[in-house]
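My main concern about presentation is that the manuscript never shows what a single data entry looks like. For the editor and my fellow referees, an illustration may be useful. For illustration, here is how one protein appears when written out as sequence plus structure tokens:

***
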Amino acid sequence: MFSVLGAGVTNEITARFPFKVLTYEGTEGSGFSSATLVIEPWTVTTNSILSDISTTLGHEHELRQVFVGHAGKKDVYRFTYVRPKNGTNTNPQITTSKEVQFDGNPVVVLKDADRTIVMSLPTEADIKLAKQR
């Protein structure tokens, strides 16, 4: 069964665009704490889950990304970001969810006082590095 949140999403099975998702400490362009890189979008299928758990400054956070489908010429992803409340790793935690439509242009997935998460196309250097691994 296929179901999605969001109007106009069709039941396509693979992503169209390569992408990278960078989690910056602070603002975009500052040092980043984690990265997800996909250079072969056809490997990302409907309901594929990409998860990144990282610890920065003693605080663990998790970013989950699910490929939902297509809306027109854009790939649709649902992001869920879980982070500690008040800067501590104890409960309660804050969970933020956002659906993003990606067409290759940079998209700010989340921006708060501590982090900025950006989805964009990988650079040629990113692709070259990934192919070397």
Notes: Confidence is low (pLDDT under 50) at residues 1-8.
